[in-house]
Every structure is written in structure tokens, then in C-alpha cells.
Design goal:
Four copies of one chain form a homotetramer. The first copy, chain A, is an alpha/beta fold. Chain A has two domains: about 120 residues, NAD(P)-binding Rossmann-like Domain (Rossmann fold), CATH 3.40.50; about 180 residues, Dihydrodipicolinate Reductase, domain 2 (2-Layer Sandwich). The longest helix of chain A has 20 residues. Chains in contact: A-B, A-C, A-D, B-C, B-D, C-D.
Chain lengths: ~325, ~325, ~325, ~325
């Protein structure tokens, strides 16, 4: 069985997804692409051999030959497009976030629950990153005892001018919120946000430091620094009762020159997580054949956004904020 | 265009190739598998969804729906099967070695030259390993000057009882012979083999140390240790005029426990070179569509075997041996 | 000029100081040792060649041939002994803490200020650790811009049964409080303490996580885990505007065995900071000759204790606590 | 007992020895320095507080208040000065080499044997390097089985114009010859030298690659590259039956900036081996008090030079050369 995929939105992320699909994923074909910028859609279609350039998202979703939809259009379109997919009964892999607000995520959740079957996967691709998978496997092996603390570091080279501390939380640190829940298999119960206040330091991309408590009593923290200058760098250390586990990034070579021994950072997240995106896409396509959902669910998408909003509140009020969630529907057990 | 592939031999290596093909390579289908052990062939077919289990290699090669053949049967069958593929005009990816002796390799070479087009790729997969590719790209960038020396280390956990020093050269160190030629873009001109003589040390898997000179005047050495006990480990350092480049192996996590900081080695070569095998297979399938040969050629297969035989001679005679090659046919320029 | 040193208290730390003095510090002689346990004092004197075993601390301080005093007796004796040294006009290197409470530290401060000259050094030896010195030098070079955040990790193998979260702060994390002030050349202005609450986890040695703000607006955090099990491990990363600097611990070799690549942690702090203790002692002895104070001052000792007490308050009250300090006397500028 | 030391030759190396002695070695005083360049001698004396500037080496050796002599004058003076010290019955730490030729080393050996007691130590300081000591301790622990191979790498930033391949062996690679013998506790029995021949590459500082066999049947190799450009770098890996042990160099910090993670190499050997020089000096002074010789003996100095000369012969003749040694006098057992 070959899954015919339609991709909505082929900017940087969507075009990468299209390439991943056609270059690395047997069992799938790229049936259609669409983009608000038609020229871009045609260019990506030409490069990837997509069968059709659709005029708009509805044409993709309503195309009867499209089996599954990947949404990589702007964040504010995610809710409506996902709801439309659900209404059409089509499986969807929606780039994070599931929706810009937790309230809107709940609408998607309600629709999926009403439909009675899991159709939505959210593109929190770190679940498929070999480093995080290895970290989780070591934790589950039990040889290090229980998890006590989790330290996360997430750094980008530079942030757009309009990228403020709220976006640092809801656009970037959500990856750590997601992966911390997944690694620790629990919910975050409170958040407190700290923000350096360096005289004259640009507001865009300025770092935030978040400290969470979990339902298991663990402490989780995240340094999110979108203007870290030196490279794209994601680190994590899980501190357990009998030892710790740290992530390693993919490094293929080391250069010795100019009195230095050097390894290199990528300029953005794509080389770092290329394997994760590839494995996520393969797993998604496979899940459509075997009917077993994988990856982040709509529930995960909702919770991550809800935690991010609690982070916004803590940032604004300068104090610890309790994280309140709706009860978890049985569909997601 | 979808390439229909037939795989001859589905032991450890061939079964892995089958999985790689069906799990990671779009644009191909696994048309047929065969194996001297019919039960094994049926099992691999069931696991991978191969369309047919062929009774013997000839049935695979002669199957008109098979577009291309992958040979992973025992070494002594490689020559005949490759010659048969050439006679049938079918592209072939032959696991290394191309043939057990340089003389037999020359027969394949002659047949391919006579046919006038490149159909044979030899499975020296390190050409596609991201670490070696990065090393070569750094060299070609010119920023470190010219290559002066190349140090190679190749260690296995343990060797079979019948694995002697000759096999260490012709079965294992051939990978370093191949990759050194590829990295340095030149031929090896002499070889001298050293062998530790430790009282009471088992002969099987005992280390050999090879020192080569190249046509560019460089020194290349290889430590080949098939009984190294501690893990599967391949290292390399390219020493240039202005600096050096070292390989790094894939490492995803680090564990701190028991007064130690630890990263892990795989028990065999497959995890280390999983990416290389995957990328080699994708590149081979793509080369069949676009008609541009990639990877190690039959010429490379011949030279590697010829160098290995010079190594055998040096091992036996305890002195430096000049490496003599036939003139390179224009087909391989 | 040879400095005659008297050491008060030759338990684990004091005996180490005695060995360091006699084995690594020219320009000094070990004139006297004393200890509440006379047998221990005699044993250390025999081992190190100390000239005298004094019956009690007063005998050391009052010995006219003793030029300088090193205090390594129990914490609750530090204030009185230091005050006695000041009264006698004798330079003193007092192990941390300067006194068990900030209030008592202020008594020492007042006495030193009244005397009008710097006689007290506190044994926060990390000021002399080559890794921290290199970190500070890189920061001062300016090439990475200004410091924005500082992450500290301090882990011990196991804690005594009576070692609670308050002690984790005032006995262990004080090293990070001290070194953070020194690295960033500023004061900490607030502290908030987080504590994992893992069901059934032992209270002794349980981790605390401290988040500080500095007068320059930076965020500093400390993971203090006295029961970390895996080894003695101190790490730090200074995040600046254009890059980061991380500490490396002394590692002399790497062992590959049993499918692992391994480096080793010491079981306690002494191997990690052996160089720092040696260089601190050399610098102290040199400072007595040239009259230029080095290392942590009584002011630093006071502030560190005051910050620790604010940490205790935050731990008890579960909220952020402002750190209030007395004005800094001009003697310490 | 305080040892009064006289230093002959205070160029780069001798001046460093003088500083090490006065800054790091209790139990010694710097009684006298001398140098062919009197101004330099006076300058070093002023800096280090040496008690006397002697007019010439004889004045140092004959000074009755000088207990022990450190020779750091040009290589061709080593034999005569050491013989003079032996004649005067004075212990001597002679910088390597003991003498420019093995024949001359034998004269020193004969004189010391005739005197009947060990007075000569040769400054092969790596015996005291913590990394090599840790490597040897791991080997002696037996947990990795017996040593099978030893790989050595020795790289300098740049070589003087007159520094040819012979000097690469007898001035630089002698350190590896020495330390390989010490680590493996055996003699080298043959040597073969390989030399890259890169068109247009400068002769000075050009690399040599040496392969040795040992009396225990092990293979030892040395890459000696005096013009390696990128930094001063010494590496070693000892390959044993059950695993390997690698040296690590002292690294205190890591800098992340400009898309790179960087650690630094020193520009010359002194920072790398500062601990070794310090510990060697402390051990030498201690050995003079307790009468137990430490470090490299005159025998070691002779053998190292003899092996280097065999290397010269192999370099000239392009073949393997057997290493012939005189019988080892009982004094050195």
C-alpha cells in the first residue's frame, strides 16, 4: 500500500518535509503540494516530483486521491486545517504548534475525540531523535534509578527582530516542554520564568530560563537562548538517582588547526534533527498502514501549548504559576 | 521509474541490504531474493515483503522484471555472478570483494570494458559514510594544505577461529585500502606488513600493521585488529600540511555512573556504518535512473584486491613489496 | 624570607594542607600543628616533618616563631580563632566558611577593618583552579561579549546521613556562590531555591536547585547534588553574548574496554582541586612576603555566608528572597 | 636537609628549570647559575633569586656548597659536564640527550659504573607526566591484558630551518623511544623509518614515521612531525589484549563560538609538560635525600641514543635495522 501525501505549505520546513518524503520514505508518494506563494509551490513540486500543485489547502484536503495531509503552513492556519482534515476523516501530521493557543488546541482535541479515532500527529520530531531515544531507553532500563532533574539547553544563532521572550517560550522552548514530558512520562505542574536583564541587550532573542516542577516531584529547567550567536545547539542532561545521561549531537569529524581542536555546530536546526525528521516521517507513514499512532498526539499538542501559556503568565507576573489542564480524554491513554 | 531489485544471498549482510532497501529507499522495489538456504530466503522475503523467492541466482538474474542485482552471496561466487549480470546487461551492486583474487577481478574488468559501459558497483560503503565524506570535503577545501599521512585503525570485537593474518588483510583491511585510495585520490605503490609476535597469543584475529607509500609520496598506515575485544571501532586521521582531520563515530549519548563517564561502542560494524549502507543503496538506485555511476567501481575492486595480495606477499616475506597494477582502462576515468 | 606556618586542625582537609605546604611550597616551613585529637596531630607532624605539635590553638597563635596561621578546625571554631589571629596581628588562611553565620562573619570583618589591614584569606580555593582562571580570562578578553548566564553543577558521590538541604546550600553550594561572584565580578541580588520531591527519596544529600539574579541582571543557577552517586563532578558554563565557555575537569587518560570508552571521576573533591589547593597555598605564602592580598577576602567570606542564609530562607518559604548586604568597607576595594 | 642546586645553562629550558626549582620545590635552594651568555645568567639569577652567578660550568661543579648539578647547556657539552660531575661525586640531572652519540653515552655509563653508585638522571621528563603514569598504571593493573601495540604521535608547530629528518629522530622522537621502553618495560629490537616524499615540501620539519619491534614481540610506531603547524600535540594509545588506553592532554576549558566548539593546543611543549617537569624536579630533589634513584638513568640515556642512531641508519638505507646494545651493567638493574 502506497500512501499518497498532500503537503500544505512548502516554505523552509514544508519543502524539507517534501524532500524527506521523496528521498527517504518508501511506501509513500507526494501527491500534491500547495502554498500561498504559488511560484514556490511549483518550484518545490518540480524539485521533488510532486504529482500536482494544488491551488489551495482545501483542494489538497478534498483531493480524494490524497490519503494523508502534512500541514506546514503558518501557525495561525493549523487549527482550521487540522479541523478540516478531521472532518474529512484524513490523517494529518501537523507541524508544531497544533494551534496558537491552548483553547484552540482544545477545539481540535474535541473534534478528534468526537470522531473517536486518532488521526492527528503533531510534528514534535524530537520523539524520533536517536539521542533522545537513547536517553529514554537508558532511563527505562532502570540501571540509573529514577529521574530526579532534567536540564535542557536550546540555543539558536540569531533571532528575527520581532522574536521576543514570549515567542522564545511558545515557539522554541515548547520543544523542551514536549520532550521533557515525553522523557519523564509525566506532566509539568508549575513553571517559573527568569529573564536576564542586561543593560542595552537587544530584546529580540534574549534568553529566558524556565524552571518547572513535575507531577513526580522532579525539577526540569530550560535555558532558551535564540540569539546565542555561536551555533545551533541543543543539549540535555537527565539526572537520576545513580547517575546521569547526556545527549550528544551528531559530529562526524574533528579538525585540528590554528592551535585549536575544533568540531562544528550547524547554523540551524535542520542538520541537527535531520535524522529525527526522517524517522518521524517514516514512522508516520508506517503508522497509517498499521493503524498504530506514533509521535506526539493532539493531547500532547494541547498540553505543550497550555504549558507555554503558563510560561507567558509567569514571565508577565514574575512568579511561579500552576499549570492547569483539562482532564485527559480516554482516547489518548 | 521504480527499480526492481533482486538480491542474491540474504545472510547477515544480504538481509540487512534487503531491510535497507524496503525501509529507506524510495524508487525501488524488492522484486526477488534467493539464498542457498531456501528457508532463510523465505524468512527474509516474509520480513521484507520481497515479491518472489527465486530458486537460485540464475533465476534472479534472468528474471526479466529484475532491473538490477545485488550480490551478497559468499565471496567465491562474486566473480561468476557478476560476469553473468554483465552478460545479461544488468547493473549490479556486488558486496566486497569483487572476486577473491586480483586475477579474477581482472576478468570482471575485462568483461565490463568489453561491454563498454559501467554496470558494476562494489559495496565499499565507506565512500558514503558521512564521516569520511566530511574528511574528504575538508581535504578538498584546501584550507589544511595537502595530505601528508593517513592513519587508519580498524578494530573488531572478536574473530572466528579460522581468521588469520591473511584474512585480516584481504577481508578487513581492504576497507582501509579502498578508503585511503579514495580519500587521497591516488594509488598505493608499496606495502610493508608488521605483525606483533606475542608469546601465546592466539593466531586468529591477531593484529597486523600495514605501512603503505602512495604515488603522491604520502605514508598511509593501517592497524587491523580483529580480536580487539573492546568494541567495533574505526578511526582515521588525515595529517595535512597545516592541520589534521579526524573521523568521529556516531555517538548519541553519554552515561555517567560508577565513577566513570562512558560512551558506547557497537559490537559489530552495522550500527557504525548504517548510514553509509543506507546512503550507498539510495545512491545506487538513483545512479540507475540517472545513468551516472557512483561508489567503488570494478577498477577499485580490482586494485583493492591487488593491494591486498601485495600485503599477503609482504606478510610472508617480511619485507616491503612494490604494488604492480595493470594499466587503468579508459572506461574508469 | 621563609614563612613559618602553624596549622590548626589536621583532619582530612588540614592534613592535606600540611602535605601541600611541605611538598609543594618553597619559602615556607611547617612550624606547628595542633588538633583536638593529639594522636592525629602527632601522626601528621611525623608524616610532614612539622617542627612542633602544639597542645592547642592558642599555643600555635601565640607562638612567636609562627608567622602565619592556617585554620582547618571545625566550622564553629573559625570565628574565634580568626579573631584571635587578628588580635595577634597574624595573617590567617581560614578554611571556608569564615564563620557559621553571616552575623559572626561581620564580627571578623569589623575586627579586620578596625585593624586597618588585610590579614584574612578565606579558603575558597576555586579562585586558583586553572579551569576557572581560564574561564575568567576568556571572559575578560572580551571576545565573547558580556556574560549573560552562568550554569553551575556540583555533585558529590554520597552525603552523610545528617546532611540536609540546608547544608547542601551552606556547606557545598557556597563554593558556587563564591565562584559566581568572582567570575562575574558582581553581587547576587536574589535567590530562589527549588527542591525535587521524589517519593521515598532520602532527605540526606537530596538535590537543591538554586536560581540567582545578579546586580548586572544576569541569571546564575546551581544544581547542588550531594548524593549524585556517580562521582565527584563540578561543571560550569558561562553563557556570553557571542558564545559560551565551559569548564573541563582534569582527565589524563581514556580507557576502551567492554564496549565502552571511559574516562574517570574522582570519588571526592581533592583530586579535582589538587592544583587549586597547591596554587592557593603558594599564592598565600607569596602574598605574605609581598604584602598583596590574594584569594577570597573576609568580605567574600561574609557575603557568601549571607547569600547562603538567603538560600535557607528561600528553601523554607518557597519563594524568591532578596539578598541584603551591609555596605562594603573601603578596606576591601 | 636543603639541597643546593647549581644550574649550568639557563636558555629556554634551563631558565624554566630554575623557575620550577624556586617556585615549586621545597627542600632545595638555587645556589648558582651559569651560562655562556653572562647577561642571561644574571637576568635569570635576578628573576629567580639564585644566590650566585658562576663564571663557568667548572665553577658551579667545583663550588663545594653546590650539592647537585642540573645541566641544561647545549647537547655537545653534556658528556664532558656529566663526566666532570661524576669525577666530583656530585649528583646530576642532565637534560636529554645524555650525549650526542651512543658511543659518548657509553663513556658516561662506564664512569658511573666505575664509581659504583647512581649519580646521573637524564631529563626524560615524561616518566613523571600524569598521563603516561596513568597509562602505565592501567597496564600494570592487568585488567586489559598484555600490551600488543603502542601508537605514538608527536607534533610541533614549526621546526627551525636546519631541523632535518635525522634531528626529528634524535632530538624529538627520542622522547617516544624513551617512553615506549618505559611503558612496555622492554627493549626495542628493530626499527624501520618511513618518510613521506611530497613534491616541494620543505625538508626541515618534514615528518618521519618509525616502526619498531620490541623484545616482547610488540609493534611500536611513532609519527614525528616537527612542522605540524596546528599546535604542540603529543598523543599515545596503548593497545592491549582486552582494550586500549589513550593519553589525554591537559584541557581546562572549551569555547563555543563562530559555529565551532573549540579546545586549545599550546604553541610548544612547556605547557603540555609543565606538571611533568615540576614532578621530575621534586622527585629528583627527594631522591637526593633518600638515596633512591628515580627517572631515566644513564643506561636509559645510552639506549635511547643507540636506538636513535639505528633510526638514522634505517633512514639512510631505507630498510629495517636491528638494534644492538651493549650488555646492561648490573648497576642499572
Amino acid at each position: 500500500m502506497t500512501i499518497a501525501v498532500g503537503i500544505i505549505g512548502v516554505g523552509v520546513m514544508g519543502a524539507d518535509h517534501a524532500r524527506t518524503l521523496v528521498n527517504h520514505v518508501p511506501g509513500a508518494r507526494l501527491r500534491a503540494v500547495t502554498d500561498a506563494d504559488g511560484a514556490r509551490a511549483r518550484q518545490v513540486a518540480a524539485e521533488t516530483g510532486a504529482e500536482t500543485v494544488a491551488p489551495d489547502p482545501m483542494a489538497v484536503i478534498n483531493d480524494r486521491s490524497v490519503d494523508a495531509v502534512l500541514i506546514a503552513s503558518p501557525d495561525q492556519t493549523h487549527r482550521d486545517l487540522t479541523l478540516t482534515c478531521l472532518a474529512a476523516g484524513k490523517p494529518v501530521l501537523c507541524e508544531k504548534p497544533l494551534a496558537p493557543t491552548a483553547r484552540e488546541c482544545l477545539e481540535v482535541l474535541a473534534a478528534e475525540v468526537k470522531g473517536g479515532r486518532r488521526l492527528v500527529q503533531v510534528g514534535y520530531m524530537r520523539h524520533f531523535d536517536p539521542a533522545y531515544m537513547e536517553m529514554k531507553a537508558k532511563l527505562l532500563s532502570g540501571e540509573l534509578g529514577r529521574a530526579v532533574m532534567l536540564h535542557n539547553f536550546h540555543r539558536n544563532v540569531s533571532a528575527p527582530t520581532w522574536f521576543d521572550a514570549k515567542m522564545a517560550i511558545s515557539n522554541s522552548a515548547v520543544h523542551e516542554i514536549d520532550i521533557s514530558r515525553w522523557l519523564l512520562d509525566t506532566e509539568l505542574t508549575s513553571v517559573q520564568v527568569f529573564k536576564p536583564k542586561i543593560a542595552g541587550m537587544a530584546e529580540n532573542g534574549a534568553p529566558v530560563f524556565l524552571v518547572f516542577e513535575t507531577a513526580k516531584g522532579q525539577i526540569v529547567n530550560v535555558e532558551m537562548f535564540n540569539n546565542a550567536a555561536y551555533g545551533y545547539d541543543v543539549r540535555g542532561e537527565l539526572v537520576c538517582e545513580k547517575g546521569t545521561i547526556s545527549l550528544r549531537s551528531p559530529i562526524h569529524s574533528e579538525v585540528n588547526t590554528g592551535l585549536a581542536s575544533t568540531t562544528f555546530y550547524p547554523a540551524d536546526w535542520r542538520p541537527r534533527f535531520a535524522d529525527a525528521y526522517r524517522l518521524q516521517m517514516q514512522a508516520w507513514i508506517k503508522s497509517l498502514s498499521d493503524g498504530k499512532p506514533v509521535g506526539a498526539s493532539a493531547w500532547d499538542g494541547y498540553v505543550t501549548s497550555a504549558v507555554g501559556e503558563a510560561g507567558h503568565q509567569s514571565l508577565a507576573e514574575g512568579r511561579s504559576v500552576r499549570i492547569a489542564l483539562v482532564p485527559k480524554p480516554g482516547l489518548y491513554d
